[in-house]
Amino acid sequence: GENVEQHPSTLSVQEGDSAVIKCTYSDSASNYFPWYKQELGKRPQLIIDIRSNVGEKKDQRIAVTLNKTAKHFSLHITETQPEDSAVYFCAASGLSGSNYQLIWGAGTKLIIKP
Amino acid sequence: SQTIHQWPATLVQPVGSPLSLECTVEGTSNPNLYWYRQAAGRGLQLLFYSVGIGQISSEVPQNLSASRPQDRQFILSSKKLLLSDSGFYLCAWGYGQGREKLFFGSGTQLSVL
Fold first, then answer.
1. Cα four-point dihedral sign B61, B112, B17, B48
2. N or C: more exposed end of chain B, with fewer CB within 10 A?
């Protein structure tokens, strides 16, 4: 079945710098790749996603890139701000029977240093 | 608009006691529903998902069970809680193309003592 690995587990960056989180997946049939942000004690929230027919997607300071050949995708956050501090989860989705299922990475704790 | 309600927000239960967590969705019909658990500082573990009334799929064998008595109601239960059942429980519903985008409830922090 699908397996998703996420790195690094913790990332500390200076405010204003960029942050990059990477995920690799194993199932070449996976076709949907979302990123979720979870602040401490809160629910995970979808921040950006990409489908396998697109190589890159951007939303203001956040972007996601997908390399289908290498089977990895990355989250890029530019001009980081204190409110970007959170745990970020990647996931990969593929059709399993008649349903889509998300397989999750273990999460990256992003710390923005003032 | 669609909303998801999950309660209670926090729960402290003794070992061996029963559990019932409820989740309801408004503003949509026939949603895909999910129960996730998150141990402290850890990732998301899918426990159960349901694509319709009475249809439950279990991802992890354990002493928990789930039921979907109504289209927009999803219940997580246990007859006897274990210490290892402590964690942050999240209900979610799937939307969008293929229903793979998840919107999570606010979660229940369960402490088993």
1. negative
2. N
